[in-house]
Design a protein that fits this description.
mainly alpha; two-stranded antiparallel ribbon; 4 helices
């Protein structure tokens, strides 16, 4: 599992970031290492949060088969604010409940992995970039 330090404004990996374990020009570790590279002001993304987002997208895709894809803003509201997009509101109440459970489980898992590795929940900017990953995956389904 890899973590990398990101710019919280863009979600992009920082080009000048390298682990404190990089001790010489011959040994450069670009991934951030929990318990070594913990900086209070740092933001990190990693494989596990994106894997959790991908799983959530797969579950939501199964619930919205043959439905138009909502706008990116509607999807952001679904993931970050638990607001069901207008186009999904015609689904059965069980499907809507399942969609919200999927979103809740995503953030539960994301916060869990950040707690495990960084000893804190995901920061708002980190959640925003995990959300953007999920939005991209859902809007590419067409």
């Amino acid at each position: 599992m890899g973590w990398w330090r990101i710019d919280p404004q863009t979600g992009e990996p920082l080009s000048n970031s390298r682990s404190r374990l990089s001790r010489s020009p011959d040994f450069v570790l670009l991934n951030a290492v929990p318990s070594v590279d913990n900086d209070e002001e740092a933001h990190y993304l990693g494989d596990d949060p994106w894997d959790f987002a991908y799983s959530a997208v797969q579950k939501i895709n199964a619930l919205i088969v043959r439905m138009p894809t909502p706008s990116e803003n509607e999807l952001r509201q679904l993931f970050l604010e638990r607001v069901i997009p207008q186009t999904f509101q015609q689904r059965k109440p069980e499907a809507i409940a399942s969609m919200l459970q999927t979103v809740d489980k995503l953030w539960e898992n994301v916060n869990w992995v950040y707690e495990e590795d960084w000893k804190r929940p995901a920061l708002p900017a980190e959640k925003r970039w995990v959300c953007e990953y999920a939005v991209r995956r859902l809007t590419e389904r067409d």
